[in-house]
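Retry 2 of 3 after timeout on previous attempt. Resubmitting structure tokens to design endpoint.
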């Protein structure tokens, strides 16, 4: 009877260790959710009105933009994105909001546009090489291909001209 209780105790310990290992292994496969950029507050965004607000009131209401237009400061962008990934896989966008506030020359709001996830471009490269234009040269062609080309006639080197005199016409 004593041996039976030892075996059942060791069986319970082994079962407990197996369950702990299973839980630790499953926790590594959890979903990871991240937020990037501006925290969108729908009430604040809806309060920005064209013709009423200006740069100062928009900055007071929404804060500094995520980025300003490249040429001039007539366009402000507030970008917000939620991403999701599983363990070590590539993250995928779940939702995205781009708030585009346009100003006129006087600094008054002209329009407020909202764009969503439909603006995300999915790029899938083809193959492991980038196609390029031009000649296909091997490593040895690149290293030894210019031997003899230095100073060749017509290449701006010293060896191709028939100008032997001191003047511009050879005199």
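Retry 2 succeeded. Sequence:
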């Amino acid at each position: 009877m004593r041996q039976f209780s030892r075996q059942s105790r060791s069986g319970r310990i082994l079962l407990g260790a197996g369950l702990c290992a299973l839980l630790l292994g499953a926790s590594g496969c959890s979903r990871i959710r991240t937020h990037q950029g501006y925290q969108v507050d729908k009430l604040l965004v809806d309060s920005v009105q064209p013709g009423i607000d200006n740069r100062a009131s928009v900055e007071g209401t929404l804060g500094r933009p995520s980025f300003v237009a490249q040429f001039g400061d007539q366009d402000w962008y507030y970008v917000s994105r939620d991403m999701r990934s599983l363990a070590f896989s590539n993250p995928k966008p779940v939702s995205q909001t781009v708030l585009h506030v346009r100003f006129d020359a006087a600094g008054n709001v002209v329009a407020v546009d909202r764009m969503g996830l439909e603006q995300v471009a999915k790029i899938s490269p083809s193959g492991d090489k980038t196609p390029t234009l031009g000649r296909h040269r091997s490593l040895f062609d690149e290293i030894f291909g210019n031997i003899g080309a230095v100073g060749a006639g017509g290449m701006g080197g010293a060896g191709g001209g028939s100008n032997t005199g001191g003047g511009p016409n050879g005199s």
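Attempt log closed. The longest helix spans residues 2-27.
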